[in-house]
Amino acid sequence: MAEVLLFHHAQGLTSGVRAFAETLRAAGHTVHVPDLYEGRVFDDLADGAAHVQETGFGTIVERGRAAAEGLPAELVYVGFSLGVLPAQSLAQTRPGAKGTLLFHSCVPVTEFGEAWPQGVPVQIHGMDGDEYFVDEGDIEAARALVESTPDAELFVYPGKQHLFADASLPSYTEEAAALLTQRTLAFLDGVG
């Protein structure tokens, strides 16, 4: 079984993110879910994004790094949207990563280093009509990552929802979320 460090999105540690973690635990995985917002949860994505701007992206990444301290090196890093930043940073800079799952977002590999670490499998999941994933360059970063390493896979789902895998939000899309969860569990079984 895998040990997972899962980071929430810009709306905070919602009940949907907690439920996703519980699904992974029910499958036998150990899951750590730090609260990068120190208890704050936002009903609206725009409010959460404003909080991130106020807090600073660097602070979010550092809080993610701090959450990894004291945990084994052999983790699978998982990030929902904003949580991709600490997940991808740790996967690229902290030796020992077993794998990475990036949901709803991906940043260029050069943000955290020169190349994706060899032998670290990664999956990126997003929707083909998601304005954040498509229009802000995340899908291009994901395609570049896939082209740069044989250990990367990109899964693009039909639809326009951003946080489609969070069951507590109106953007939740059951069919796509179920497929993402199925692929996630298969990935974790493969690296665990």
Can you characterise this structure?
The protein is an alpha/beta fold. It has 7 helices and 6 strands. Helices cover 41% and strands 16% of the residues. It has a 6-stranded parallel β-sheet with strand order 2-1-3-4-5-6, sandwiched between helices. The model has no long low-confidence stretch (mean pLDDT 97).
State the gist of this model.
This protein is 41% helix and 16% strand. It contains seven helices and six strands; from the N terminus they run βαβααβαββααβα.
Overall mean pLDDT stands at 97
Low-confidence stretches: none
Strands, count: 6
Classify the beta-strand content into a percent band.
15-25%
Instruction: Tell me roughly what share of residues is in helical segments.
Output: 40-55%
* Largest sheet entry: 6 strands, parallel
Distance between the termini: 4 Å
Structural class by helix and strand composition: alpha/beta
Output the number of helix runs.
7
Along the chain, the helix and strand elements come as EHEHHEHEEHHEH
Radius of gyration (Å) = 15 Å
Key attributes of the depicted protein:
192 residues; alpha/beta; six-stranded parallel beta sheet; 7 helices; 41% helix; globular
